[in-house]
């Protein structure tokens, strides 16, 4: 243990701990900006400077490991002056149109400025000295260089967590900036639209592209029937933007709030998640059958899940030779969209051209996904507008809804029923667990052999997870699988996806089925989720997802009554011709820069 | 204060037979070589002046099968051109110094990081490096040197930025600790030394530490190579004993009308005429990596300051706030004051900012911008305003 | 614009495919072609298995690794204080007049680019310029015009 003094208080910490962490142990507040729990140390903003006795200069507490007998002072005149200068300098290169900024009141630079209460700060404004670019080319987010303070959190996120590096630091000195490849528009580079950078940007330099106004317009258009679907991960995170602690479930209140906002019908993506399991599970079993019974060598295995649009774009850019391994299933959002303007329209007797389909997602990549040209199976744009969890919170605030005190409500029907299997889609391993619950039962006629249906080996925050399920006692139709060991793997965060893909490329991945989610923790840690998101918050949301599952009466996708009904009335059976028309898709190879 | 006066010395460029010195060095133990350096009091000749013996001692103490000796030939400080001259004239002594350093710290691998502006020298240096490798082989010693080129970035002269550049990345200084002696290039223990330091080290092995200590003062031992430019009838390279005053220097190199001397380049200090007599050139006074620029009374100190600030604004790596934004603020600030668009009292705010930059910036570049700024504005305030 | 063809592959075979190979590879492309095209940077990224944005980010840090079109002869005029005191402006004026371009520009025949640069280490022989790798020092307008005429005839 290392013993040191901070502001004359003794503290003992493990070797390798930073001065910042040691100070936090003493509940001393040292401001930070470039520091983020999920990312490696940068030490470049210099906001966290402290004084070390005997040192010539101040030190960055986030980047300095503790030393035996060290004496630190966090609040000397020298420290305060330097820190004030640093924040003033950042403000001078930041286009501070705070009250008009999308991140107003949710900006770390703003709250620092607020703490210092500068008033009319002394330095000259530098914003207009540089040509800056506001890149609105991506359907998912806006990159506004005039608000960038060069903390490089986004760059570290894109490289360390996502292994994409669509953005990097370019130029030097006064011209240093965060840039895509040779300043190309973000829509034309390797970016997966995952929004993890957006989630970590301390200012308004990276924000989601918002479609709130378009949705309001639709809601208030008397000619339109506006349906809304909510993804599973939204209900365990929305509360954070409305005054709740991370991990509090607000499903019922959210449904009521959506109804109060004026949506014609409040429906659940969980329904189409259950449908995805039926389609994807069947697809997997058919691929296995082709490979094992028919001896078809061309069958693409392992099969990859296809729910995460960030992951889809990643593989399209970086591993296009494995596109045939992707399940052809659309994501739950897009299955829902295609059905909303066909099945739902028919059942509810509404002209599909009058339906506006809105989805609430924990994700910014979903905005891109909805815009893909493939996603028009209904003859219309299947999903018209995608809003993030954060945007929904904004709408609720705009409408003046007293969220804490409204009643809980239930989803509408049809396409509002769900099972626990659909709910756990929101956490890494959830799709796998849901698929196993159903596939195992189809093949053996029995429930998966895990206590209370909880397939714990596929759960948790490990970057790459593996499990093997032995299939025994098959029903007649699936006898060929008797005794087979189904090997599965799960990865979340694209850096982990890349690890698996490298193994696949080298022929060293012995798996049949691989679930990949672009974001750390899965959708609960999505780029559209409330800010901040960090490991503890992800864990809380994950716990809430599994609690939601446990509280459901139905916990297997194939038991969802509306899913049973849609196959009976409309789709016939999984992977039918109609299913393929509406619920399946194809992928395109993209450039890797 | 010791004052040795101005004495020309000829050690660095003295032609020697490096083989003999190397044989002598390789017979010594690592500890003996290091002790020689410690006894000599040699401080790094790049500008920062860290004791060479200590640097080698720390690196030698690290347990690692892979260590590096890096020669910093990224000479970019405005007004410095001595390393180019040394490499042109006595590269054998540079390579030899690296081998000795390698022996001292336990490194078999040396890397010379040569600034891109000096690429024209590379063909000749490669031939000289070949002869060096042949000689080392003849002696029966295992040591290899590689050249890596810079590509036009002043900041890569900062040791950790230089490592980043060798590793193929942007030349952005690292957080310290860990220091290079523990984790340097390729994250291995590394001793990084300036071109002139390595040559001096070799001369110390040749002539003995005692011989070296007879030159210079208590705080600044030995002699060093000065790059003299500006308003002087005799610009060029001069090896001088340390411990002279700026006045003694100006008496020899000035044009009779010297108003100020910028010692140590853009990151150094501006000494005005009234302080010539009291200022010693060396670690006890104004330290320098060798850059000595003279300005006569026809020169505008505003232009000098503006030129330096423009330089730093471009050459800052840009990663840390105090340096990236601070340099821009200082530059724009003095422009506004000069034009009368900001009050002259705004200079006081800028002086405070320069103070903060000195203690808040991540690396030596950002920390030293304040040196030139404060000494020029402090001594020539009138010229900055009017 | 030039075609990179097999150059990047050859250079990667020569310098390796590690991150540390990046600078030598980029430097050699620039030595051969004077600047880096997008195509060249994408190729390098592919060979070294790093992102193209990182290749660009690294290249753009170094002033000699140009990512904009440059002529066959890149003239870099030192603008740091001594050269600036000793007649840099006259040198630039002469160059601009001769080449009919301004600082920062490239001649339409892609023969010459004219840019300013920071200290190149020839303060005692100011003013100084670099033409590609070669330094020219103690320049006067007459001297520089002879040098450029020579280059024009190459």
Topology:
The complex is a heterotrimer of chains A (593), B (386) and C (154).
Chain A: E1 2-6, E2 9-13, H1 19-25, E3 49-52, E4 59-60, E5 71-73, H2 77-92, H3 108-116, E6 134-135, E7 141-144, H4 153-161, E8 168-170, E9 177-179, H5 196-200, E10 206-208, H6 212-219, E11 225-230, H7 251-261, E12 265-268, H8 269-292, E13 303-304, H9 309-318, H10 332-348, E14 355-361, H11 365-371, E15 385-388, H12 389-398, H13 420-423, H14 430-444, E16 464-470, E17 485-492, H15 494-505, E18 513-517, H16 535-550, H17 561-571, H18 577-583
Parallel strand pairs in A: 1-5, 11-12, 11-14, 13-18, 14-15, 17-18
Antiparallel strand pairs in A: 1-2, 3-4, 3-5, 6-7, 7-10, 8-9, 16-17
Helix pairs in contact in A: 2-3, 8-10, 8-14
Chain B: H1 18-27, H2 30-40, H3 52-61, E1 68-73, H4 82-105, E2 109-114, H5 122-139, E3 144-149, H6 159-166, E4 190-194, H7 195-207, H8 209-213, E5 223-230, E6 236-241, H9 246-253, E7 258-263, E8 269-272, E9 291-296, H10 301-315, H11 321-339, H12 346-360, H13 364-379, H14 381-385
Parallel strand pairs in B: 1-2, 1-4, 2-3, 5-9
Antiparallel strand pairs in B: 5-6, 7-8, 7-9
Helix pairs in contact in B: 1-4, 1-7, 2-3, 2-4, 4-5, 4-7, 10-11, 10-13, 11-12, 11-13, 12-13
Chain C: H1 7-15, H2 22-33, H3 38-48, H4 52-59, E1 73-78, H5 81-85, H6 88-99, E2 112-117, E3 129-131, E4 134-136, H7 141-153
Parallel strand pairs in C: 1-2
Antiparallel strand pairs in C: 1-3, 3-4
Helix pairs in contact in C: 1-2, 2-3, 3-4, 6-7
Task: Describe the protein.
The complex is a heterotrimer of chains A (593), B (386) and C (154). By secondary structure, chain A is an alpha/beta fold. Chain A contains 18 helices and 18 strands. Chain A has four domains: 2-91, Ubiquitin-like (UB roll); 101-109 and 122-208, 2-Layer Sandwich (Alpha-Beta Plaits); 212-271 and 333-405, Rossmann fold (3-Layer(aba) Sandwich), CATH 3.40.50.1780; 278-329 and 419-527 and 546-583, 3-Layer(aba) Sandwich (Fe-only Hydrogenase (Larger Subunit), Chain L, domain 3), CATH 3.40.950.10. Chain A has helices at residues 19-25, 77-92, 108-116, 153-161, 196-200, 212-219, 251-261, 269-292, 309-318, 332-348, 365-371, 389-398, 420-423, 430-444, 494-505, 535-550, 561-571, 577-583, and strands at residues 2-6, 9-13, 49-52, 59-60, 71-73, 134-135, 141-144, 168-170, 177-179, 206-208, 225-230, 265-268, 303-304, 355-361, 385-388, 464-470, 485-492, 513-517. In chain A, the strands form five sheets. Chain A has a five-stranded mixed β-sheet, sandwiched between helices. A four-stranded parallel β-sheet of chain A has the order 12-11-14-15, sandwiched between helices. Chain A has a four-stranded mixed β-sheet with strand order 13-18-17-16, with helices on one face. In chain A, α2 (77-92) packs across α3 (108-116), α8 (269-292) crosses α10 and α8 crosses α14 (430-444). Chain A is globular. By secondary structure, chain B is an alpha/beta fold. Chain B has two domains: 18-213, Rossmann fold; 301-385, NADH-ubiquinone oxidoreductase 51kDa subunit, iron-sulphur binding domain (de novo design (two linked rop proteins), Up-down Bundle), CATH 1.20.1440.230. Helix content of chain B is 46%, strand content 14%. In chain B, the strands form two sheets. In chain B, strands 6-5-9-7-8 form a five-stranded mixed β-sheet. A four-stranded parallel β-sheet of chain B has the order 3-2-1-4, with helices on both faces. Chain C has 154 residues and is α+β, with helices and mostly antiparallel strands. Chain C has two domains: 7-59; 73-153, Glutaredoxin, CATH 3.40.30.10. Chain C has helices at residues 7-15, 22-33, 38-48, 52-59, 81-85, 88-99, 141-153; strands spanning 73-78, 112-117, 129-131, 134-136. In chain C, strands 2-1-3-4 form a four-stranded mixed β-sheet, with helices on one face. Chain C starts with 6 loop residues before the first helix and ends with a helix. The chains are: A alpha/beta (593), B alpha/beta (386), C alpha+beta (154). The interface between A and C is medium-sized, with 18 and 17 residues.
